[in-house]
Hints:
This protein is an alpha/beta fold. It has helices spanning 19-29, 44-56, 75-85, 100-108, 121-133, 140-151, 162-172, 177-184, 188-201, 207-216; strands at 10-15, 35-41, 63-67, 90-95, 113-116, 137-138. The protein has a six-stranded parallel β-sheet with strand order 2-1-3-4-5-6, sandwiched between helices. The chain is elongated and about 70 Å long.
Amino acid sequence: MSGDAAGTSIRVLIVDDHAVVRRGIRAYLEVLDDLEVAAEAADGEEALDKLQLMAAYQELPEVVLLDLLMPKIDGVAATTKITSLYPKVRVVILTSFGEMERVHAALAAGAAGYLLKDADPTEVVAAIRAAARGDVFLHPAIARKLTQEMVSPSTGLNALTGRERDVLILVAKGHSNQEIADEFVISERTARTHVSNVLRKLQLTSRTQAALVAVRQGLVPPDDAG
């Protein structure tokens, strides 16, 4: 199952909930001699249904090009099922989101490549060919970020985004979720999510612990801690 010098094409299943994206990718891939679009799917659930049908006819694709954020079954969950059910099928993630947590989740689920949607078409082709060979292909920006994390892992305050650090300071000062929401002109629900992310990343269980960390790290003077 590989598009090698023997003359067989690399068969690709394109999965994206935007028809225009699927058509664009198909149009580019179909002009290449060694690539063949086996099918398209609009979400993870449809992709799994099509793979099940393909497997029944022993016509599984070599590579699934998969959007990360889709209705019904998202990319990470779909990747997990695909790599579990069809271990010879390689998954390349194509997404407009570059958050590292999603990268880690997708790679942990067994993805063989990770591209941002602004990637050059030649990079998409390179990722598909690499996946078919059994290699892993990462968008250069993502590869750099992963390398940085290996050199200096994000731990403690380094794991927080700028907004999360600001939220930590307000938590340490005794602000409620609603007060944090008012400060940043966001919804209370979003503020609550930020607080939850801060606690999770710092491996804390309470706002009081968060306040102590903020004081200890010099973000808030002891007298300002609520």
